[in-house]
Amino acid sequence: MDDDLNSRLKPLRERIDVLDAQLIALLNQRASVALEVGEVKKHFNAPVFRPEREMQVIARLQDMSEGPLADEHIASIWREIMAASRALEQTIRAAFLGPVGTYSEQAMFEYFGHSIEGLPCPSIDEVFRSVEAGAAHYGVVPVENSAEGAVSRTLDLLLQTSLLIGGELALPIHHNLLTASGTLDGVTRVCAHPQALAQCQRWLTTHAPHLERQAVSSNAEAARMAVGDTSVAAIAGDRAATHYGLGVVFSQIQDDPHNRTRFVIIGQEPTGSSGHDQTSLIVSVTNEAGAMFKFLEPLAKHGVSMTRFESRPARSGAWEYYFYIDIEGHRDDPAVAAALEELGRKAAFLKILGSYPRAR
Questions:
Q1: Where is this site: Essential for prephenate dehydratase activity (predicted)?
Q2: Cα separation of 330 and 325, whole Å?
Q3: What pLDDT is stored for residue 279 in this prediction?
Q4: CATH superfamily of this structure's domain 176-250
Q5: Which candidate in 102, 154, 179, 261 is catalytic?
Q6: Which residue among the candidates 96, 109, 263, 323 is catalytic per the annotation?
Q7: What are the domain boundaries of the chain?
Q8: Of 22, 66, 179, 350, which is the most buried if we count CB atoms within 10 A?
Q9: What does the pLDDT read at residue 98?
C-alpha cells in the first residue's frame, strides 16, 4: 500500500518541485521590479502603499484565473506577495486597538498582509492620535457591526480628525468562550468588550446564565485577564486563544452566525480611484422643513447611489444631527464630483472623509 502510494505521488511531487522553483524565481524577479518602483516613488515622494493599485492587481488576476484557485485564495496569496514587496521598500506601521489578539489586529493583517509592523493601542482614540502624530502610517478602526450597528466613538473621532479613510474591510466575527483550563470549573464571570457581550447575549443567557458579565476595553484584554485568573472566562477569537494559550470551552457563540464588523483604514494620504470605490461624508443640514430632501436631491440628479446613512447627535443641545453617508464612486468621478459640489452649496456642513476601494 505505502509503496504503491509513494510511487504514484513521487512524479506529482517532482512536478510541484519544478513549479515551485519557477515560482520562487519569478517572485524574486517581481520583487526586484518592485524595488525599482520604490526608487521611482521615492524620487517623486509618492506613498509606498497604494490600496487602489493593489485592489486593481488582485481584481485583474481574479478575472484572469480559470481555477481551481478561488477568488479569495488569489486575493490572500497576492496580498502577502505585495506586502512582502512593500516591506522591501519601507517598513509600514499600522496602529490598531490592542492588545495583541484583537479582531482589529486580525483586520490589520487581512488588509495589509503580515509583512507589516503593528502598533497596539489601548483605545480607539489612541489609534487616531498615533496616526495623526506620525507614530504609525495607518490606523485600523472598527466603524460598524452587522448586529450592533455603528461604533459611536469611531464616528465621533472621524468628525474631529484631519485623517482620511483610505480603505475598508468587512471581517467575519467568530466568538469563542475561552478559559485557562478549557472548562468552566470555578468560573464566575465572563469578560469581553461591550460589543462582544451584546453580540453573544442570547447565547450567554441560554448556556451560561450564572456567569456575571463584565465589560472590558477589548476582547484581547479579557483573554489576558483569563490567563492569570481561573474565575474569568473571556469572549475572544482564535487569534487571542492561540496568543494567550487559552482553551476553547465553546466556539462560535455569537448570536448571529453571519456576524461581521466593518473596519476602515485611516491615514494622511488620499487614495486614488480603483474603479470600484465609495466615498464617505459627514453632513449637517439646516433645521427646516424639507432640508434633508433638498440636500439629497443632487445625488439622484447625478445618478449617485447612497449605500449607508447613519445619524449622530451634534451634542449642541439643539436637537441637531450629523449624518454619516456612504455613496458609490470616487470623489474624482465626474458624476460624484458634480454631486458633491452641489451638496457643498446646500449643506450647513460637509466633510469628505475619503474615497477608497470598496470591500469585495
A1: 261
A2: 14
A3: 97
A4: Periplasmic binding protein-like II (3.40.190.10)
A5: 261
A6: 263
A7: 48-171+259-269, 176-250, 277-357
A8: 179
A9: 86
Q: Which three cell numbers stand for residue 10?
A: 513521487
Strand partners, 264: 141, 168
CA atoms of 103 and 151, how far apart (whole Å): 14
Fold (topology level) of 48-171+259-269: D-Maltodextrin-Binding Protein; domain 2 (3.40.190)
**Residue 102 is a catalytic residue:** no
Three-state DSSP class for 338?
A: helix
Query: Is the domain covering 277-357 a CATH 3.40.50.970 domain?
Result: no
Cα 145 to Cα 148: distance, rounded to the nearest angstrom:
5
Q: Quick one: angle between helices 71-89 and 51-64, nearest 10?
A: 140
pLDDT the model gives residue 235: 96
For the chain, the C-alpha Rg in angstroms (whole number) is 24
Residue whose C-alpha is closest to residue 241's, from 228, 230, 226, 231: 226
Give the pLDDT of residue 218. 87
List of E strands, the chain:
93-97, 117-121, 138-145, 149-150, 164-172, 176-179, 189-192, 212-215, 232-236, 247-250, 260-267, 277-284, 306-313, 321-328, 349-357
User: Coil, strand or helix: which one is 136?
Assistant: coil
Question: Identical fold at 176-250 and 277-357?
Answer: no
Residues 154 and 33: their CA atoms lie apart, in Å, by: 38
C-alpha cell at 169: 474591510
Beta carbons of 280 and 324 less than 8 angstroms apart: yes
Give Cα separations from 134 to 39, 75, 92, 111, 202 (angstroms): 22, 29, 11, 20, 42
Is the CB of residue 183 less than 8 Å from the CB of residue 206? no
- 8 Å CB contact between 142 and 168: no
pLDDT of residue 313: 82
Res 224: pLDDT: 93
Label residues 281-311 b or e (16+ Cβ within 10 Å = b): bbbbbeeeeeeeeebbebbeebebeeeeebe
Q: How far apart are CA 133 and CA 149, in angstroms?
A: 29
The question of whether 261 is a catalytic residue gets the answer yes
